C-alpha cells in the first residue's frame, strides 16, 4: 500500500515531535544538575581513578613515547614494587542499599529520568497519535511493522512507513550525539539513554581486582616505536 503524505505533516507532526524530544532532553539535563548532590571527592579514590586512567593511556599511546620512557612508566605501575601492588586495597565496593545518600541519588536519577518520559509519552500520544510521518528509503520485512508502526494498525501498510509514536522513540534514543554536541560529552540526557539501552548496571568490582586486571594488561603490553623512520616516511609521502 503506497501513500502520498501531506506536506503539512512535516511542519505539524515531525518537527514538533523532534523539538519536544530535544527540549525535554535539555530540561532533563539541567534538572538532574539541580538535583545532583555535591559529593566530596575521596583522596584515595581519586588517586586510584587517575592511576587507572594513566595506565590505560600508556597501553593505548605508549608507542608514541621513547622505549625508555615507556618501560619506566610500566615499571612504576606494574612492577612487584609498583603502584598497583603497593597501593592495592582489598575493600568491598560501596553498597547503595546501606548508604542513604546513594539511595537518595538513585531515586533522584530515576525520577528525573521517568517523569519526563511519562510526560513526553502522554503529550505525543495525545496530540500526534495515528499519524504516518515518513518512510525509510529501503524495504523492510513485516517483522519491523510492530516496531515502526506503533499506534497505526493497518495490515495493508508497507513495513517501511514510520508512525508518529515510533518516530518519537527513534528521536528519543537517537539524540545522544546531538546532546553530546550541545551539552557536552558528560551530559545527563545522553548517559540516561545509554543506561536505558544497556539495562541495569552490574555490581561494582572491588578496587583491588581492578588494579590486578590493569596490572596484568599492562605487563603483557609491549612497545613498538611508532615514530621509527617518520622523517623518511614523510619525505616519501610529499614526494
Brief synopsis:
It contains eleven helices and two strands. The chain is mostly helical and 239 residues long. Strands 1-2 form a two-stranded antiparallel sheet.
For the secondary structure, the number of strands is 2
Q: Uncertain segments of ≥5 residues (pLDDT<50)?
A: 197-202
Proportion in helices: 55-70%
Q: What best-fitting shape do the alpha-carbon axes yield?
A: extended
- Structural class of the secondary structure composition? mainly alpha
Q: Biggest sheet: strands, sense, closure?
A: 2 strands, antiparallel
**Topology order in helix (H) and strand (E) letters:** HHHHHEHEHHHHH
State Rg.
26 Å
Top keywords for this entry?
about 240 residues; mainly alpha; extended; 2 strands; two-stranded antiparallel sheet; single chain
Question: Can you put this structure into words, describing what you see?
Answer:
- With 239 residues, this protein is mainly alpha-helical.
- The protein contains 11 helices and 2 strands, in the order H-H-H-H-H-E-H-E-H-H-H-H-H.
- It has a two-stranded antiparallel ribbon.
- The protein is extended and about 70 Å long.
- The relative contact order is 0.16.
Topology:
Elements: H1 8-35, H2 43-61, H3 67-78, H4 83-86, H5 100-128, E1 132-135, H6 145-148, E2 161-163, H7 164-174, H8 176-183, H9 188-198, H10 207-219, H11 230-238
Antiparallel strand pairs: 1-2
Helix pairs in contact: 1-5, 1-7, 2-10, 8-9
